[in-house]
Design goal:
There is one protein chain. The chain has helices at about 1-25, 35-45, 50-55, 55-60, 70-80, 85-95, 105-115, 115-120, 130-135, 135-145, 155-165, 170-185, 190-205, 210-225, 230-235, 245-260, 260-270, 285-295, 300-325, 330-340, 365-390, 405-460. It has about 500 residues and is an all-alpha fold. Among the domains are: about 30-65; about 275-390 and about 400-460, no CATH class. The longest helix is centred in the last third of the chain and has 54 residues, at about 405-460.
Length: about 500
């Protein structure tokens, strides 16, 4: 029994020494000459990353180690763990010689990156081939955010088809590329190719591409081919919770116009032009409403639409003109303040939405700039709070080391400003595009109005009778019907039906 106990104790001691030797070998790149350096290494090993970050510069002052790839990668790891992952990943992937980073540091990063891809997606980084060799293909692909393609480009279809042939694609990558291929094909009139991509995604159980996006894409593809009944069926599938729902109502009304169903178009436009949606509606819905009214000779409504148009869209037009002409306005300041302090979603911009481009929240380029700006603002505040809590940093000056918290905070602010500028550039482009749309729709409204004036003066048929069109409002003992009034109830939206009459016509006897 004694022999067994002695042997067990010996094994434990041997294992302990072996573990200590392995640990020492794993961190042999880290300087431990001074007591402060030993204490810093202990903080890192024990997981006290914030404390280690605070004492990094004081512990390693004067050491050539701080200029090495190991030191920079390890410092960025501490920065990540201290609550600044986006900034840390940008700093990390800017290192040009990752092959010199010690496996111990690489392993620390791999653990974080495998579960923190979302933070890297918000960063403005490019995973270089050198980094792919260090991290491995699978993790590198996971960290790379899906690119946005120029869908109308002549070479885009070939590029996307070539990418989709790669066997190493993840499911999300393949789904995203398939959707991009479908969009590019539809824009370039490759209808069958586009249809196949959209249906393939819709029939799979993927969650990469929202179903509402697929319904809308299929509806537009059918409309593009003149298959208006099929388009209407797809438009009906777009759920109310989707940001595309209101646009689907307008486009569905156009499909009914093409089918010579003005009564159904009127019903859809009653929703699309409701005062409830004024902050989200554009000028085309008003033009379409005016055009349908011309189809059924509802001339008084046409004059009401043009009369209210300016007041209805005055706030948005003023906001668009501001975004298109200047860079330093109250609207710009409010936009930046919202991005910095609130999540990037439509409800966060409720006070500004009437002054901004209509589909700004759906624009992928703008969304990425806003995400990055917000990340830099949030992480900058965390660094500032951490800095104030560090007594040992009180003596830092403007000449502080590159990896001081003051310098890191300064980097976050510079990057936030750069993303803010890129966001303003994109807002300006969207504003100019929408202003041009307003000019076009106003010209079309004037044409409709001129047509009405001409008819009122020259068309003798206006003295005739108006016949009811087919497709009356469905009525039964199971259906409650209410007249439409100025007061809008939320549960009546998307439940409108309309009965319209044909234009007046004089019935003449024929021989």
């Amino acid at each position: 029994m004694k022999t067994l106990k002695v042997l067990t104790l010996a094994l434990i001691i041997a294992a302990s020494f072996s573990s200590m030797a392995e640990d020492k070998l794993a961190w042999r790149f880290f300087p431990t000459k001074a007591p402060a350096q030993k204490e810093l290494l202990k903080l890192i090993k024990d997981g006290n990353y914030r404390q280690a970050l605070l004492f990094w510069n004081t512990s390693l002052s004067g050491e050539s180690f701080v200029e090495t790839a190991n030191a920079k990668a390890l410092f960025d790891f501490l920065l990540w763990k201290a609550g600044a992952p986006v900034l840390a990943s940008e700093r990390l992937f800017s290192l040009r010689s990752p092959k010199y980073i010690h496996p111990t540091v690489v392993s620390l990063w791999k653990v974080e990156l495998s579960t923190g891809a979302e933070a890297v997606h918000k960063a403005k980084v490019n995973i270089s081939s050198r980094w792919k060799k260090v991290l491995g293909t699978q993790l590198s692909r996971k960290l790379q955010r899906p690119p946005v393609y120029a869908l109308s480009g002549a070479k885009t279809l070939k590029v996307l088809q070539k990418e989709l042939k790669k066997k190493s694609l993840t499911a999300d990558e393949r789904n995203w590329l398939t959707f991009q291929l479908g969009l590019a094909a539809s824009i370039q009139n490759k209808h069958q190719l586009a249809y196949n991509q959209f249906v393939r995604l819709l029939e799979s159980e993927q969650a990469t591409v929202d179903k509402a996006d697929l319904y809308m894409a299929l509806a537009r593809l059918a409309y593009q081919q003149g298959e208006y009944d099929a388009a209407i069926d797809w438009y009906k599938q777009v759920p109310k919770k989707s940001p595309l729902w209101l646009e689907s109502k307008e486009e569905r009304a156009w499909a009914h116009v093409r089918l010579d169903e003005p009564n159904k178009a009127v019903a859809q436009l009653e929703t699309a032009t409701s005062p409830v949606f004024t902050p989200l509606s554009g000028p085309e819905s008003d033009f379409l409403d005016s055009f349908v009214s011309l189809m059924i000779c509802d001339y008084s409504k046409i004059f009401k639409i043009t009369g209210k148009f300016k007041a209805k869209h005055a706030v948005r037009i003023k906001g668009l003109e501001t975004l298109a002409k200047t860079r330093n306005s109250a609207l710009h300041n409010q936009f930046v303040a919202t991005v910095d302090s609130k999540p990037i979603r439509l409800s966060s911009f409720s006070k500004l939405v009437r002054s901004l481009p209509r589909d700004f929240i759906l624009d992928e380029f703008l969304h990425r700039h806003m995400e990055h700006r917000r990340a830099m603002a949030v992480e900058g505040k965390r660094i500032a709070r951490l800095n104030k809590g560090a007594v040992s940093l009180a003596s830092y000056t403007a000449d502080a080391p590159e990896d001081s918290l003051e310098a890191i905070y300064g980097q976050s602010q510079v990057r936030a400003q750069a993303s803010g500028k890129e966001a303003f550039d994109r807002l300006e482009a969207l504003a100019k595009s929408e202003l041009e749309e307003f000019r076009l729709m106003i010209r079309k409204l004037h044409i409709v109005e001129a047509e009405v004036i001409q008819r009122l003066h020259l068309d003798e048929n206006l003295k005739g009778k108006r016949a009811k069109r087919e497709n009356p409002v469905p009525r039964s003992s199971d259906i409650l019907t209410f007249p439409v009034t100025k007061e809008v109830w939320l549960d009546e939206l998307d439940s409108y039906h309309a009965e319209v009459k044909d234009c007046p016509k004089i019935e003449r006897a024929s021989l």
